[in-house]
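The records we work with from here on pair a chain with its fold. The integers have meaning only within a learned vocabulary of local backbone shapes. A complete example follows; check for yourself that the lines match position by position.

:::
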Amino acid sequence: MKNSRLKIQHQILLQLQQCRALNRIFIGYSGGVDSHVLLHACAAISEFKNQITAVYIHHGLQKEADEWAIHCEKTAVNLDVSFLQIRVSANAKRGESPEEAARNARYDAFKNLIGENDVLLIAQHREDQLETVLLQLFRGSGLKGIAGMPEKTAFAKGHLLRPLLNIGKDEINSYALENKLAWIEDPSNQSTIYDRNFLRQDIIPKLKQRWQSLDKTVARTATHCAEAEVLISNLAQTQFQTVLNEDNSLDILKLLTFSEIEQRLILREWFAFLNLKMPSQDFLQRILNEVVFARMDRHPILHKKGVTICRKKNTLLLTCGALNAS
């Protein structure tokens, strides 16, 4: 148990010390055991204690949410760190699941907080990474999805850190018990109507009966995929720049000098550059087959989910919304 405490604090220190000119430290604190351990461990590091603010996002989805907010504030006061409660609307938009709506509302609220040289710490751990990778795999995601969650990523004007990502759930529980922490149990976490809870409650325990180190091995696979994704992304970015025109259209003749695999990568980079949702594999292939590979005397138009792709001579254009074909 003592080793769990030292290991968790070491991981937090390691990530915080890598941040240059560190300003404010925000900790996503739901009151659950994971975020409580993260907050408690951070507050025990005197070097950074005065920079910490525990942030409770009030979704208003549970009747106990007000009580949880009170609990979280009391915990922050007892640990002698600042506390902030933010109320958000987590109503699902069209095409969003309740989980997505809550997550998007939560991260939008965090983005409004993070200024230059600020960091946000989230308490996601190794089992969370396992669940994420499995969910992405079942959804047919590519390399980027299977890479899972990074330990550190740019976020708003600062960074998002996941210092517990290489820490097992058993170590987090050991820390909580050793330090006699009191945490909140969200009853919605038991509902297997949600995909992540279904994996957590019904599937992963059975998998671990046979493969006990599953969380470690899948996390290692995610790391390999993340490294490969960086290399491929850098290559695709370089190739993308060679075909990008000043008006953000693509030069089709230059695009055709690359292999079809590279063309799909370049198109993905194009969507990312334009801050658009990543297209499906099927839609990418339709762009190539129906537009890029079309005869020179044709002016095809492809429209799907608010995005319009068209070809004008040797230029590939993308607009949001309907396009006048004339």
